[in-house]
Each structure stands twice: as structure tokens, then as C-alpha cells.
Backbone:
């Protein structure tokens, strides 16, 4: 999709179709040229409602307000409404929220995110005809918009939405086509394309690093594990940020096998790691003036004669012993070692981990929202705030002093599952906190994306399947740190 920003008014642009966003049901606005036809068609201008007037070559879409979130999904719905048509170029005006260009950014993101579809496994792929979008600087409220600023905003939006789609592609890829070594190759390819540095740890090195819990989870799979380390190191960075992702390329549950219905979609258990790859892509392309390290623990959790077992006791990289009572609580084991390794390699100012860690997070906050945990309220709140600014949903789940007891073990230092059936998302977060060292305790937030990472229906600007959850959230947060 190509974007062209122009100072020419809408009327002077020759693109095949015009997209008009009807804001707050205001069909009297000067942009609305087809009042009678819209009335006939029953178009009210409600959020995400579309009306394609083929005879006029105009597409109307409703948005409740000029706020970014409303404009983003409206733009996505507009693009979706054009799927299957033969329009190759469209024009659209500039929408800002009283001059604030977040809304323009959201519109461009919405177009790119809404156009996404995953068709790798379709024998007949739908060709997306629409390639050119002209954005006129003619502004909704008649404001003057600086073209240089606007073009920077459009460029950024493209990078961020493309990175989100990049993550979606990895997550949607089947477990037979995307296993740990493939994730490592994707990271290496990304490094080659963007100038990021990349280091891949294979089993020999993982053993040397004493990452025995990660290796135990990986043991029954024919696909050997990998730990990926991507680095973005600008000169004189403003701060150092470490990202860690759960990259379970498949989670069968291991010997504590998942029931059939729960196993389907577990290709998406690599969403955290895939988000880290997408974030690193955006960080490199935006060339943010902060040092960012992305670590991914890429592992497949399978069954077999060599599988790790309930009743095993594993020793994590930091020396803590873990009683295994359920091999389906594998993500925390992989993250434990990957977090320890990441903290050993990098002394960071902020440490964030991304994981489809618990079904309990989905039960607690639903499908569209990520759960944010951590020991430092400010860091936790920062993540929640920037998630909302980026158009993602996130809510804080607070730790408390009683949680530690829930993961107590009679025979080891801790247990990999809690002794209560309630609060599974925070008890899993509590488990991870055992692997955060003193120096990083106040700098860490755990982001459980189990809800939004993969949803089997389209929602807002997100398609059926992978959403790329975490990418927009973290890029927005990193942009803030870079200021
Ligand atoms: N990958 C799952 C969590 C998950 C569930 C992600 C549903 C996305 C959607 C994780 O490894 C897991 O299986 N967790 C268990 C933990 C339990 C055994 C304590 C769970 O949530 O049931
Ligand atoms: Zn599991
Ligand atoms: Zn898992």
C-alpha cells in the first residue's frame, strides 16, 4: 500500500474513489456530498458503519469521534468494505483531533491493519487491488497542517502497522512451518534487512548457560530450541530497554496434555516472541535513540518418551529449584531462564516481557485486553497508559503479599503451578517475579497477551487470528522513552 501526502484539496485529486469519514453522525459536514443517497441507504454514520456508493465512487464510514481509536477502526472498516472491488486508488482527507496528528497516524494504521489478511495456505489467494492512497492535507475542521510533520507521521504509522502485520504473519504460520529454528531464521533475516545485531543460542550454548528449565520443556520435540537475541544500539542512547518474549511455537501441554479443543490455536503461543520480533523491526526502522534488546525463548512443548514430567524438579538458570506439577505451565519455565539470561546480558532501565501465559488472563479480562503485572506501580501504569494511546486494551492486575504462598513447594524452592484455582494470571506473574533480580525489580512489567494475541473472529482493526498484540503498545511506549 502506497501513501501519498499532498497539499492539493480533495476536489483536485483524481483517485478512483473518495473515502469520507462521518464523525459523530454529522452528515451535515461539508465533506458529505450525498445526503439524500445516504438517507435512502439508511446510513446513520454509527461507528464502523460503511456505505459504498458505487455510482458516485464514494465510500462513507462512521466514527464516533475524532479520537485515534475511533478513526483507526473506521479506516480499517473502510478498507475492508473495498475488498473484492476493483478500485486501485483512493483519496481521503486529513482528520486530526483539534490539530493533534495522533488521529492522522491512527487513520493510516487503520488502513494498513484493516487491509491485512493471511492467505498463505489458500490455494487461490485474493489479490488486493487497492494500492494507492492519496491523503489530502485538506483538514476536517479546516485547520492548517504542516506537510513535513504530517509526512513524518504517515511514515511512522506505516512502519508501526507493517511491523504489526509482520508479527501477525509469524503467529498465523502453522507449527509445522514455524518452529524454533524458523523463528531464529526470521530474526536473522530481520537483522540483515534492518541493521539489527542478532545472536542465536543453540542447545550447546543453552546448556553452557545452565538454561535447564527451557531445555527440559523443549526435550520431547524433534525441533531443537533456540534463544534469540536482537540488539538495536544507537550512539548515546537515552536509555536501555530489554524485551523478552515467550516463543512457544506449539504448546500441546506436554504430558499434562491439553484437551483437544484447547489445543487448537496453540500455534499462537509464540505471540509474545513474535511481538518482540515485530517491535525490534519497528525500533530499527524508526531508528529510535534508545538501546533496545529483544530476547525470544523459542521452544516447542510436545509429548514423548523423553518429555519432562509432572514430579520432576528442575533447576533454573538462577539456581532456584522448581517442582513441576503441570507440564502445560511451560511458558513460565521458558521465560524464567530467558529472563535470567537477558538480565545477565543487559543491565536495563526497563524490562518488559510478553507472553500468552495464562488462560486465566482471558477468563479475568476477556479476549481483547492484556493483563499488566509488575512490582512497580509506575512502570505498570506506564504500560497501561501507552497501550491505550496506541489503540490496544490493557489493564493492571496487582500483586499482593499473599501470592507468594500460592506457589510454595514442599520439595523444591517453588512450584510451577499455584495451589489455588483462582487468580491464575497473577500467580503466574508472581512465579515470573522469582526470576527478576533485585536490580530489575522496579523496572519490570509482565504483559500477558493471552486474550488479544489470537482471536477467532475479527474485532476492530484486527482480523480473525493473530492481532499483533503488544507491538503498537510497546512501540508507543518506546517512542515516549525516546523523547
Ligand atoms: N499457552 C497457555 C496459555 C493460553 C491459554 C494462552 C489460552 C492462550 C489461550 C499456557 O502455556 C498454559 O497452558 N497455561 C495453563 C496454566 C495452568 C496449567 C496452570 C492454563 O492457562 O491453563
Ligand atoms: Zn501450556
Ligand atoms: Zn503456553
Residues:
Amino acid at each position: 500500500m502506497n501513501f501519498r501526502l499532498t497539499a492539493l484539496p480533495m476536489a483536485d485529486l483524481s483517485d478512483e474513489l473518495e473515502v469520507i469519514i462521518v464523525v459523530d453522525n454529522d452528515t451535515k459536514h461539508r465533506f458529505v456530498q450525498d445526503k439524500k443517497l445516504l438517507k435512502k441507504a439508511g446510513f446513520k454514520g454509527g461507528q464502523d458503519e460503511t456505505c459504498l456508493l458505487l455510482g458516485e465512487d464514494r465510500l462513507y464510514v462512521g466514527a464516533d469521534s475524532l479520537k485515534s481509536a475511533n478513526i483507526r477502526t473506521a479506516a480499517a472498516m473502510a478498507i475492508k468494505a473495498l475488498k473484492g472491488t476493483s478500485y486501485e486508488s483512493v483519496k481521503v482527507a486529513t482528520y486530526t483531533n483539534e490539530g493533534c496528528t495522533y488521529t492522522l497516524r491512527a487513520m493510516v494504521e487503520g488502513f494498513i491493519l484493516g487491509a491485512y489478511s493471511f492467505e498463505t495456505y489458500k490455494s487461490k489467494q485474493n489479490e488486493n487491488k487497492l494500492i494507492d492512497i492519496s491523503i489530502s492535507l485538506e483538514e476536517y475542521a479546516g485547520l492548517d497542517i504542516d506537510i513535513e510533520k504530517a509526512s513524518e507521521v504517515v511514515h511512522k504509522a506505516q512502519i508501526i502497522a507493517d511491523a504489526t502485520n509482520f508479527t501477525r504473519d509469524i503467529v498465523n504460520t502453522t507449527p509445522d512451518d514455524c518452529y524454533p529454528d524458523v523463528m531464529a531464521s526470521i530474526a536473522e533475516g530481520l537483522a540483515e534487512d534492518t541493521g539489527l545485531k542478532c545472536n542465536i543460542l543453540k542447545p550447546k550454548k543453552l546448556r553452557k548457560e545452565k538454561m535447564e528449565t527451557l531445555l527440559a520443556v523443549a526435550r520431547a520435540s524433534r525441533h531443537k530450541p533456540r534463544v534469540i537475541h536482537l540488539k538495536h544500539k544507537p550512539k548515546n542512547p537515552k536509555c536501555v530497554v530489554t524485551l523478552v518474549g515467550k516463543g512457544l511455537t506449539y504448546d500441546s501441554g506436554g504430558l499434562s496434555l491439553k484437551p483437544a479443543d484447547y489445543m487448537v490455536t496453540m500455534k499462537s503461543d509464540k505471540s509474545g516472541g513474535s511481538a518482540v520480533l515485530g517491535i525490534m523491526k519497528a525500533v530499527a526502522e524508526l531508528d529510535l535513540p534508545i538501546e533496545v534488546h529483544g530476547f525470544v525463548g523459542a521452544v516447542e512443548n510436545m509429548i514423548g518418551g523423553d518429555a519432562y514430567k509432572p514430579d520432576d524438579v528442575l533447576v533454573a538458570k538462577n539456581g532456584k529449584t522448581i517442582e513441576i506439577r503441570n507440564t502445560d505451565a511451560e511458558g513460565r519455565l521458558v521465560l524464567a531462564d530467558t529472563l535470567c539470561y537477558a538480565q545477565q546480558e543487559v543491565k536495563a532501565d526497563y524490562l518488559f516481557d510478553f507472553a500468552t501465559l495464562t488462560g486465566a488472563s482471558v477468563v479475568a479480562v476477556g479476549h481483547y485486553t492484556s493483563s499488566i503485572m509488575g512490582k512497580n506501580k509506575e512502570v505498570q501504569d506506564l504500560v497501561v497508559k501507552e497501550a491505550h494511546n496506541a489503540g490496544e486494551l490493557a489493564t493492571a492486575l496487582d500483586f499482593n503479599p499473599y501470592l507468594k504462598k500460592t506457589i510454595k513447594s514442599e520439595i523444591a524452592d517453588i512450584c510451577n503451578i499455584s495451589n489455588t484455582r483462582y487468580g491464575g494470571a497473577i500467580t503466574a506473574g508472581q512465579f515470573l517475579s522469582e526470576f527478576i533480580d533485585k536490580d530489575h525489580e522496579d523496572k519490570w512489567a509482565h504483559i500477558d497477551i493471552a486474550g488479544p494475541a489470537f482471536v477467532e473472529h475479527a474485532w476492530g482493526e484486527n482480523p480473525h487470528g493473530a492481532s499483533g498484540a503488544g507491538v503498537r503498545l510497546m512501540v508507543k511506549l518506546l517512542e515516549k522513552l525516546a523523547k
Observations:
- Residues 251, 253, 328, 330-331 surround zinc ion (ligand 2) (CB under 6 Å).
